[in-house]
Amino acid sequence: ALRETGLATGAVLSLEINYLAEVFLGDTVRVEGGFHPLPNGRFLAGVTRTSDGAPVAKAAVHFGA
Predict the structure, then answer these.
(1) Quick check: 59 and 14 in contact, CB under 8 A?
(2) Of 6, 9, 14, 25, which is least surrounded by CB within 10 A?
(3) Residue 62 half-sphere exposure, CB side, CA atoms within 13 Å?
(4) What is the reported pTM?
């Protein structure tokens, strides 16, 4: 989706996920605010549990040639 919007180009070079809290089968999560651009072709997103708004993960995707 980031490539289709023109925000990112090239292949996915890496995907980093930092887990902050447990999520169980049946929990619903959402990506908060989409992906925020960082330097060097990286994008950051936060993931929250919808039942209590607790942050459960942070993800960074790195695009490049």
Answers:
(1) no
(2) 25
(3) 8
(4) 0.71
20-54 confidence digits (pLDDT tens): 999 999 999 998 766 788 878 788 889 999 999 99
The token duo for 56 is 């459960």
Tokens 């887990």 belong to which residue? 19
Q: 4 — alpha (psi -120 to 50), left (phi > 0) or beta?
A: alpha
Rounded CA-CA distance 5/17 in Å is 22
3-class SS string, 2-65: CCCCCCCCCEEEEEEEEECCCCCCCCCEEEEEEEEEEHHHEEEEEEEECCCCCEEEEEEEEEEC
